[in-house]
Automatic annotation (TrEMBL), chain A:
Residues 270-388 form the ABC3 transporter permease C-terminal domain. This is ABC transporter permease. The chain crosses the membrane at residues 24-47, 265-286, 307-336, 360-382. One of its GO terms (molecular function) is transmembrane transporter activity. The lineage of its organism: Bacteria, Pseudomonadati, Pseudomonadota, Alphaproteobacteria, Hyphomicrobiales. The keyword tRNA-binding does not apply. It is found in: Cell membrane. The keyword Signal does not apply.
Length: 396, 232
């Protein structure tokens, strides 16, 4: 057994040391594999960044109330009477003034212009109730001030401001037939709310003719466990045909739909490219075996077995794949990690997020590279192991 | 002893090749006995089967019929794995174009056959040093093949062939790629290995001057041997 490993180590070392003799072919394989990994990791980083932004938005101790069966805020409606019934529901925290911490909200789509492409995109305008800002944690006005209630003023999330034009502090924007003053910029801990525009609920209702209707109600709970109390209260009242879920659960659902879609686009594309890279790796490794045929045959004549030739060839292929994989991961990190992008979220409005690579995603990229290397090296390695000694000895 | 147990014994060996639809017979019924300690030069026209004979003796090619016994071992029935192990223990190959690993040093090239043994690293290093000393290259251990002349490379190949102390050295045109002076040096080393260390050597050559270094010359023609004794 010791001898076998010495043989394997020797043949592997010979193969690896001879890579420089095939440097251009080897380099083309490394680049092809790196490109595959870049494409895959770019998509995965996009999905991951999107998911982190959306899923990181919700809190466990905030309940979101929607019309029964509504998948998203945009297609939900909650009447004024239902809002009043929820205010009296159990498990809802109260402020120092004794009022329940709830925020009826309207969620509307308005037009915006992307800074980079100058194209139109859907932006979310959220009309929030009096407690809308307080009941969410981590909301800070970073520039300007909060809008005054009863006026046509808006505050803009800082991610949205970065990606879309015309929303700068002090500017005036037109939503529908009304003009609005941008009086503040807010941050929300990197959550999806930073991709929104907020205004006073009553003004939005009035100017968009939605006087007696809201779309959702957010309520701060006395604790995460209080969610079930509010749920059963809603389920047992025939006037409340509503879904009650935690904000965290709601955003997790929203995130998974879009990130799944991104991943479903990314993997097939990466796999299609991987097939091309496998062809390249096969070509490189068959050339490697052909150029080393006399060396392999000489070692076999000396008494080396076929197995070390097999392992040595496979090791060369896997080494090229690992180099390609790591190169691809490094390139993706340098090019994409932290890059801000926006895409349509579950409410058909733009969500601004950052591409985010993680160690696990890099591992996935390198694994794909290794699979390319394994398949690309397997058949040439079998050829190396079965090389006819006599023909190969005299091949050159 | 040598009469009963020759180093090499071929009995009724046949070897055929298929070329297109045509079957070409190299040997039909070849018999041969080579005593231990002999040094034989095999000559003959191109295509007469000299190299094929060497490959059969070295267990890297298979006969279509007959028995091949080398160093008291019937090798015609061994599996590929058994043959590889047998070659490692019994055969030293010397090729016309040296067949060294270009990226390894002389010492690393010579060490290769020892990786197939149970020897420890220190013992392997000692053996490598000894083998390179025998061929006069103890001072070239760390040189790579491209840093050496053809004659020096062939000497490294000889060191590789003898380092595991094999029973039989098989040389395929060992001086075919060398100038006269280098060729004479190589042949002198082979003669030394035969005379001083008792190695049995079978050398294929086209060169009558090289054949003169052997104890016997076998002419192979049309699948049969014609022997010619040489003066020592």
């Amino acid at each position: 057994m010791r001898s076998l490993w010495l043989q394997v180590a020797a043949v592997t070392a010979i193969n690896l040391k001879s890579i420089t003799q095939r440097r251009w072919l080897s380099l083309s394989t490394v680049i092809a594999i790196a490109l595959v990994v870049i494409v895959l990791l770019a998509f995965l980083a996009m999905a991951n960044g999107f998911q982190r932004t959306i899923a990181g938005s919700g809190a466990d101790d905030i309940a979101i109330v929607l019309r029964a069966g509504s998948q998203a805020e945009i297609n939900s409606t909650v009447s004024r009477d239902q809002v009043r019934l929820i205010e009296d529901g159990p498990g809802i925290a109260r402020g120092s003034d004794g009022k329940p911490l709830i925020s009826p909200e309207l969620y509307l789509v308005v037009d915006g212009i992307k800074r980079t492409t100058k194209t139109k995109a859907n932006l979310p305008l959220r009309g929030i109730g009096e407690q809308g800002s307080e009941l969410r944690k981590g909301i800070n006005i970073t520039a300007g001030r909060m809008f005054n209630r009863g006026s046509n003023e808006v505050v803009v999330g800082k991610a949205l401001l970065r990606e879309f034009e015309g929303l700068d502090l002090g500017s005036t924007v037109s939503f529908g037939a009304t003009r609005w003053n941008v009086v503040g910029v807010f941050e929300a801990g990197g959550s999806v709310f930073e991709s929104e525009i907020w205004a006073d609920l009553s003004v939005v209702q009035s100017l968009f003719n939605r006087n007696n209707i809201v779309q959702t109600v957010r309520a701060r709970l006395t604790g995460p466990a209080a969610l079930n109390e509010l749920k059963s209260y809603s389920d047992n009242d025939p006037r409340l045909k509503l879904d009650v879920k935690s904000e965290a659960a709601y955003f997790a659902e929203q995130a998974s739909q879009t990130s799944d879609l991104i991943q479903k686009l990314g993997w097939p594309l990466a796999i299609a490219m991987a097939l091309g890279a496998i062809a390249g790796a096969l070509n490189t490794m068959y050339s490697s075996v052909a150029s080393r045929a006399t060396e392999i045959a000489t070692l076999r004549a000396i008494g080396f077995g076929g197995f070390p030739a097999f392992v040595g060839t496979l090791a060369e292929s896997l080494l090229l794949a690992v180099i390609g994989g790591l190169l691809g991961a490094a390139a993706t990190y340098l090019i994409f990690d932290g890059v801000t992008a926006s895409t349509l979220g579950g409410n058909f409005t733009q969500v601004v997020f950052d591409f985010k690579l993680s160690p696990w995603l890099i591992a996935e990229g390198v694994m794909l590279a290794l699979i390319v290397g394994l398949i690309g090296g397997l058949f040439p390695a079998l050829r190396a192991a079965r090389l006819p000694i006599v023909e190969s000895l005299y091949a050159n | 002893m040598t009469a009963q147990h020759p180093m090499v014994r071929l009995a009724g060996v046949a070897k055929r090749f298929t070329k297109g639809k045509e079957m070409i017979s190299i040997f039909d019924h070849l018999d041969l006995a080579i005593p231990r300690g002999d040094f034989i030069a095999v000559m003959g026209p191109s295509g007469s089967g000299k190299t094929t004979l060497l490959n059969l003796l070295g267990g890297i090619d298979r006969a279509d019929a007959g028995e091949i016994t080398v160093a008291d071992q019937r090798i015609d029935g061994l599996s590929e794995g058994e043959l590889a192990a047998w070659r490692a223990a019994n055969i030293g190959f010397i090729f016309q174009f040296y067949n060294l690993m270009p990226m390894l040093t002389a010492a690393q090239n010579v060490e290769l056959p020892l990786l197939l043994t149970r020897l420890r690293k220190k013992e392997r290093a000692e053996r490598v040093q000894t083998a390179l000393s025998v061929v006069g290259l103890a001072d070239r251990m760390k040189h790579r093949p491209r840093e050496m002349s053809g004659g020096q490379q062939q000497r490294v190949a000889i060191a590789r062939a003898i380092v595991s102390d094999p029973n039989l050295l098989l040389c395929d045109e060992p001086t075919g790629d060398l100038d006269r002076q280098s060729a004479d040096e190589i042949l002198s080393i082979l003669q030394l290995l035969n005379g001083e260390l008792g190695k049995t050597i079978v050398m294929v050559t086209h060169d009558p001057a090289a054949a003169n270094y052997a104890k016997r010359v076998l002419h192979l023609d049309k699948g049969r041997f014609v022997e010619r004794e040489l003066a020592a």
